[in-house]
Structures are given as structure tokens and as C-alpha cells.
Amino acid sequence: MAAYKAVDLARRLRDAEASVTIMMTEASQRFITPLSLETASQNRVYSSLFDDPLAHIRLPAEADLVIIAPATANSLAKFAHGIADDLVSTCVLAATGKKIIIAPAMNWRMYESPACRRNLEILRSDGMIQVGPESGSLACGEEGIGRMSEVSEIIEAAVAALCPKDLAGETVVVTAGPTREYIDPVRFISNRSSGKMGFALARAARNRGASVTLIAGPTALAAPSGITCIRTETAKEMLQAVKGQVNAGATILVMAAAVADFSPANRSNTKIEKKDLATLALDRTDDIITAVASAGRKPFIVGFAAETGMNLDRAARKMKDKGMDMVVFNDVSAEGCGFDVDTNRVIFLDRAGKKELELMSKYDVADALFNRLLQIKA
Ligand code: CTP
């Protein structure tokens, strides 16, 4: 099954504008054909050591990154011991100094064998980046650990491996998603927010070498790997979680969460009958940015201003009033921006002035935000 995913991996790497050259083992050709991978990679596929006698030196020398997906127990054993008896193992041996990702796939009994564990330990200590495997139903019909990671996870590891580590040493806290303010156990008021922007920010910071904590309100998104994820529900819980991280030494706080500005003045512990609730009394929630900015240890603070229309002045005022170092202006009524979509168009406002970005993916917005932050923080 994992071999089929390799076709999708090749195609998705090309979508991400990578140039992809595939090498196949003999065994892999029993599962998928070179033609499928040639089509997916739009490039020649290599499978023999002798068709092109110098390919095993040239291909790894030219590569920025080598990905072994799927990595079988047999291949891992060969890599761990420097055995070079086919094109793939010879290339891996010749990929000295290159970044190498391994995505193991095998039956759980093989994965948990002492030999395989030992080999993976050797490969990790040699600097190879291991992605997965995951638990679930295996091709043989058994359940257990051994499924190759999803293609998106492997791509993510590839992006991280190639990223400059310019946020190394920074402790970044990102908030994401909405908060819920309860009226009673079954009703709440909330803000619209999918959490996608905040999760993209956390991933970008992790990929650039930061130690990252993501404080998320209720969202459907899964916690990204390599990130500490604290799940919260109310504005009060989010405030406590943020304060805890700032006191523990966070150096950068990015408040992408859509924190509710109001919470019901009285939260009932039992369900209120609708005839008893004609009007709802609300209290203002504490402003998290203001609380952090006015405390002793202040991290670099980035806030978001979600507006409907080009209210740049309002965003600038929020930055000043709350003590932010930078504000991300976001017209949520514009096409391709705002809630539940994967793209955004934003304007950064900070002490260096204003920077307007094109419409781009939320991940690219996150990257641009950290580029800007590093410029003005320096
Ligand atoms: N924020 C916060 N604490 C709150 C509410 C918002 O820290 N209790 C943060 C948000 O995470 C965001 C920024 O403040 O980074 C948004 O500022 P805000 O003034 O809340 O924007 P709006 O809610 O859009 O304000 P208004 O309704 O006044 O336009």
C-alpha cells in the first residue's frame, strides 16, 4: 500500500515546485511500475546501477534532499550497515552530508523487532530524519504500528528539513481558533475561526527551528507533530495558558486566536429553559494581549486585527492601545480571505511601517510574518 503512496508523494512534491528524480529497487517494481513514477515525477526513473554507471554518485550529489518512502526493514538494515548492493542503497551511502528522510513501512512484528529498532537508532544518530510509521490497519490485515505516514506528513518533514533554522533559540507561543463562552452546559457564544491560520503559524515556526507551543481553542484540526499543543475552551482558560507560557520564558507570542470579547455574566450549571432567558447579560473578557504586554516579562507580541473593510487605522490603533509590536491586518470580507479557507491576504503594520502581501496560502503568510518579525526584531 505504501508503494502506491509514493506515486502521490512524487506528484505532490512536484506541485510544491520540487524537481523530483526517482530511484526504484527491484522489489518496488513488483508493486508499481516505473512508468507511473515517471509520469508523476515528469522525470527519468532509475532502477539499475549499471544503466548509467555514475548515477549513484551524481544523483545524490545534485540533490538537496533524499526521501526513502517507503523504507522497508531490509533497506533500513542495509543503510544502517553501509551495504550498497543496488542503486538505492548505493545512492544512500553516497549521499554523505545530505539530508535524508526515511518513512518506514512494514508489519508491526518487523518494526518492533530488536534488529529493526537497533537499525533505526543507528540511522537517527547518523542524522537521518525518521517520519512515522503510524498505527492502524496494516496491509496484511493485522492492526499495529507500521503504516507509512501520510504523504502530507512526509511533505511537511521535507519542507522542515529544507527550512533555514532562523528561529532556533526562540520560544514561540501561538494561539489559534475561537473560544467558547458558556451560557449553560449546552449553549455558548463564540467567534468564527477555523484555527487554520494559527496552526500554519505554529508549523512554520517549528520548521524554522523554534520551540513551539500552540494554545488552541476548540477546532477540528489535529495537533501538528513536534509541537506542544494545549487545548483550551474559554477566554479565561486561554489567558491562563498564555500567561503560564510567557512566565516560563516565551520570547514571541502570536495571538491568532479569535478570542471572544464577551462572556455571559452568569453561567448556569444546568440547562436554562428558553422561556427563562429573554436577555443575556454579558461581561467583557480580559484582553490577553493587554495582560501580557503590561506584565513584567514581555515577549515580542504579534496580534491580528480581523476587520470587514479596509480599516487600517483601526488595526493601527489596536496595536498601539494593546501594546503589540506588530499587527496583522486581515479583511475577512475579501475574497479568498478569512474563515475556513486555506488562503489569506494580509497587511503587516509595525514600527518599520506597512507591508502589503498578495493573496497566498496561510502557510506562506505565516512564513512572511516570521520574515518580517526577524527583520524588525533585529
Ligand atoms: N485578543 C486578546 N484578548 C481578547 C480579545 C482579543 O488578546 N480578549 C487579541 C486577538 O487574539 C487578536 C487581537 O486581540 O490578536 C484582536 O484585537 P481585538 O481588539 O479584539 O479585535 P476585535 O475583536 O476585532 O476588536 P473590535 O471588536 O473592537 O474590532
Task: Give a brief rundown of this model.
By secondary structure, the protein is α/β, with parallel strands linked by helices. The chain is built from 13 helices and 21 strands.
What does this structure look like?
This protein is an alpha/beta fold and 378 residues long. It has two domains: 2-162, 3-Layer(aba) Sandwich (Rossmann fold); 171-377, CoaB-like (Rossmann fold), CATH 3.40.50. Helix content is 35%, strand content 24%. An eight-stranded mixed sheet has the order 12-11-8-13-16-17-19-20, sandwiched between helices. The longest helix is centred in the C-terminal third of the chain and has 16 residues, at 362-377. Bound molecules: cytidine-5'-triphosphate (CTP).
Structural topology:
Layout (H helix, E strand, L loop, with lengths): L1 H14 L6 E2 L10 H8 L3 E2 L8 H8 L2 E7 L1 H9 L5 H8 L4 E6 L3 H4 L2 H12 L3 E2 L3 E4 L5 E5 L3 H12 L8 E6 L3 E5 L2 E4 L5 H12 L3 E6 L11 E4 L3 H13 L4 E4 L6 E3 L17 E3 L3 H6 L6 E8 L4 H11 L3 E6 L11 E2 L1 E5 L2 E4 L3 E2 H16 L1
Parallel strand pairs: 1-2, 3-4, 4-5, 8-11, 8-13, 11-12, 13-16, 16-17
Antiparallel strand pairs: 6-7, 9-10, 14-15, 17-19, 18-21, 19-20
Helix pairs in contact: 1-2, 1-8, 3-5, 4-7, 9-13
Average pLDDT works out at: 94
Strand fraction equals 15-25%
Specify the CATH architecture of the largest domain: 3-Layer(aba) Sandwich
> What is the CATH class designation of the largest domain?
Alpha Beta
Could you state the CATH homologous superfamily of the largest domain?
A: CoaB-like
Number of helices: 13
Distance between the termini: 48 Å
Question: Could you give the order of strands across the largest sheet?
Answer: 12-11-8-13-16-17-19-20
